[in-house]
Amino acid sequence: MAEKEMLFVHSLGTWLQVNCDVIKRNNDTINMKCFSNGKIVNGLLAVSLQLAKDSAIPNVMGENLEEEVQVRQWMEYALLINKLSDNITATKHMLEFLNDALSTRTYLVGNKRTLSDVALYKALYPVMVNLTYMEKEKLMHLGRWFDFIQNDQMVRQDNSIVLLGRPLL
Amino acid sequence: MKILGSSYNSATLKLLLASKVSNVELDVLTTGPKHVLYKGQPMLELDSRVRIYSANSGVWYLFRKKFGHQLQDYDSAIDHWMEWEMMHLQPAGDNFHPLSSEKRQKELGTISKLEETLKKCNFIAGTNDVTAADICIWSSIHFMQIDQKDLLTTFPSVKAWYERLLSLKAFQEAVEKSSALNVAGTGTETVGKAKTQNTRAEVKKQATSSVSSERVPNTVENDSPEPRSATEDEITSAVQNWKLGQQNSPSPRILKHPVLPVEGTKNVFITSALPYVNNVPHLGNIIGCVLSADVFARFCRLRGYNTLYISGTDEYGTATETKALEEGVTPQEICDRYHEIHAQVYKWFNISFDHFGRTSTIQHAAICQQIFSDVHKNGYTFTDSVEQLYCNNCRRFLADRFVEGICPLCNYPDARGDQCDSCGRLVNANELKSPRCKLCGSTPSPKSSTHLFLDLPKIEPKLRIWLDTVVDGWSNNAQVIARSWVKDGLKPRCITRDLKWGIPVPVEGFTNKVFYVWFDAPIGYMSILNCYTNEWEKWWKPQNSVEVKYFQFMAKDNVPFHSIIFPSCLLAVGKYLNYEEGKFSKSRGVGVFGSEAESTGIPSDIWRFYLLWVRPENQDSAFVWNDLAQRNNSELLNNLGNFALRALTFLEKNFDGKIPEVNVDGEFERSLVGAVNKELKDYLSVMENARSLREGLRRLLAISRHGNLLMQSSQPWVLIKGGPEDRQG
């Protein structure tokens, strides 16, 4: 279980260009030693948010409080999906929800890429890989967003490109 | 700010608590857009109309708005507990939480972690006052307690914390407001789990109704042929044949490799155009050449013809070299990798190749160079110099794809040497402004390079005579394309290239060049056969007494190379050309890839069926998922599948799996045998010479339709209950 969480938080850290060596696994919880005050940060959400704070990349949490809360809520969804990614039926509702939420948006939050786009991409990747074309066709907006995000090599990292879009013979 | 969709649950209570603690007035509305995730979940709508769907995030926002960064040092602890509340406590208390179906700790185990922490501090995150974490957890505990009154008896510290907070004015007001929603919302006292179960059932109901409304609309016209009946003559001969039946049927052929042409039998040699190696094959490739050829090969084998079906990957050329440079590996490595992918995809599709080879073999180089030497020796080549860009840094002539520069037509800075991606027009590499080498970036300069040309005008008279003798056997598309090429008169074609990945030209002065990929690719039909058997020339140059029919399956855009250039080479060589061809066309386009087809979980036979059903024989066709589903259901499942399954299960259940003696003298049986035979004849006639595989499939389904009609009308499951005389067919 914690394996998946480690991979998730490491890929976020890599994207944020921060040192991931401080992230440790203790039984089934993830923790890291905070660089600035030496305190231990527990849990996937707190560690992810701490990494974002440590990152030199600007505005990964959005540009203001209103954007930050949205980034936060999508982080929650990313964590849920990351945990559920083997359970197709349970994720199905969430995918539809995300599809709906993305129907009018380019990025999840604001007009720039934030931590939430990257986190949700990471969490969704194993789910998207296993969707059939028919399912992907029903999740058009999600697919468009996903394709847009995955085309950034820095975000995609070692993942392969998931083929989306309506195929012609 | 307002709460939309409030109801009597812990998520709404969280927001109410946060609003009281942070002193922010919220409009509490019970209406709101239907929450997509699950009913009963409220959302916080900010003044800017941004909606926050997660109550925890909403609580966090209200706190941050009120207190700013005062609690900064506790951020991580608060985040940790809010995540814990979402991932562990909520699923324990709420059956409808997405994680509730996951394996999880028992409620009591979950709460004991809370107990540990609250033993040591007054508030969860170690602060001196209420935080967002306290609110979220308190709210969940509050609702769990409603279901389970004695929940906290074993957790004194949690109980103390719970009661301490409950005594606060803000908490009392929020709880009161929340309870008011209960009465207004449901009008009953059902709360907690009872309520969540209720919502769950509702959503389930919703889900099922939405599924049924999405059922594939029955808009596609049903173009499968209706069963027809036969004339009296047809019936008589069919019945006669039926009775002679097994004695007359030929004994099955035994397949023995290598398959070689045999005198006195029908020998059929089948190739499908060699797929280019550096791509994963998509359904278009598969249907266009490989699958069609496979169906025909299987048909020929079933008919007892001596059949050989080969294909392989076409591996030389610029595209492979470019890709190899991009990925920093050798072209051979690229080819090895993709050849494997091709082979696997075709294997999954059950393509019955006798041999699936490749063009990067010694045999290929040898035959290719031999054919060229003969053409050269017979005087059908000439040399000419071509001005081409040369990169001094890389010491090589640059193929069009290796040059980039400013488009002379639209000034787009990154036009390629063959085409500008911006204006879409074709560009000549020499005309690019400030050209640069794609590999090293330095500026190439024009330099003349000598190349070998195939003297097509000189071969043309021979080609015309040959075409007249064979073209009638070709598909319509192939005839049209080939004729239009010769109509304008043929022009010489350059057959060498300044590349490294290819077959070296065996002529003094040209040894640093390779053959143009289209010169060597069709020769793959010979060399791949050579890899399969050393006696390959028996197929290409059969003895006079042996009749070999050669069928090539290819895409429309390959027709000129197969019908003009390749035959021209062979005519210039002066042997080999005594075969008959049948040609096919297929569509082009971005497609479902072969490897993707596998990942859909749909068995390959269903794909094979559908691709043949929609097989484009004249025009291009689009691929539509709904149509795939519909065809599968209406034709394969309801018609053929239904017939086969009904017949077989009936046979197994009532006749011990043995087909009993069948009497076909009755009026009904006679007309049935006649009708089926008529379809079968048509089937054989359209399949022979691969005239129309699509039509063949339709005739096949018509036969099974007759079977279903028989089942329907005679109702054997009723007859079987009668006496033994009824059991006769």
From TrEMBL, chain A:
Listed GO CC annotations = aminoacyl-tRNA synthetase multienzyme complex; cytoplasm; nucleus
SUPFAM superfamilies named in the record? GST C-terminal domain-like
Q: Enumerate the Pfam families for this protein.
A: Arc1p_N_like
Gene Ontology terms: biological process: positive regulation of DNA damage response, signal transduction by p53 class mediator
User: What top-level branch of life does the organism fall under?
Assistant: Eukaryota
Residue span, Nuclear-export cofactor Arc1-like N-terminal domain: 73-152
Name the record gives this protein: Nuclear-export cofactor Arc1-like N-terminal domain-containing protein
TrEMBL record, chain B:
EC number per UniProt: 6.1.1.10
Please state every residue range assigned to the domain named GST C-terminal: 71-183
Which keywords accompany this UniProt record? Aminoacyl-tRNA synthetase, ATP-binding, Cytoplasm, Ligase, Nucleotide-binding, Protein biosynthesis
Location in or out of the cell: Cytoplasm
User: Which residue stretches belong to region Disordered?
Assistant: 190-234
GO MF: ATP binding; methionine-tRNA ligase activity
Reaction catalyzed: tRNA(Met) + L-methionine + ATP = L-methionyl-tRNA(Met) + AMP + diphosphate
- Which stretches does UniProt call biased (Polar residues)? 190-222
Q: Which InterPro entries match?
A: aa-tRNA-synth_I_CS, Glutathione-S-Trfase_C-like, Glutathione-S-Trfase_C_sf, GST_C, Met-tRNA_ligase_1, Met-tRNA_synth, Methionyl/Leucyl_tRNA_Synth, MetRS_core
Q: Where is this protein chiefly located?
A: cytoplasm
Q: Name the enzyme group at the top EC level.
A: ligase
What is the recorded name of this protein?
A: Methionine--tRNA ligase, cytoplasmic
